[in-house]
Amino acid sequence: MYDSGMAEAPDWASPPGHTIVTILDERELTVEQFAHQIGRSTSVAQRIIDGAHAIDRDLARNLAFALGASEKFWMAREHDYRASVTPRDSFQIGSLAELIGKLPVNDMQNFGWIGRAGSTDDKIAECLSFFDVSTLAQWQGRYENAFQEAAYRRSTAHNSCEVATTAWLRQGEIETQGDVVASWSAAVLETQIEHFKRLTWYKSPALFLPKAKSLFAAAGVKFAIVRAPKGCTASGAVRVLSDGTPHVQLSFRFLSDDQFWFSLFHEIAHLLLHYERMPILENSETAGNQTESEANEYAANTIIPPEFHDELFSLSKTKNSIINFAKKVGVCPGLIVGRLQRERVIGYNQMQHLKRRFVWLDHPLK
Question: Does the model's pTM come out above 0.85?
Answer without folding.
Answer: no
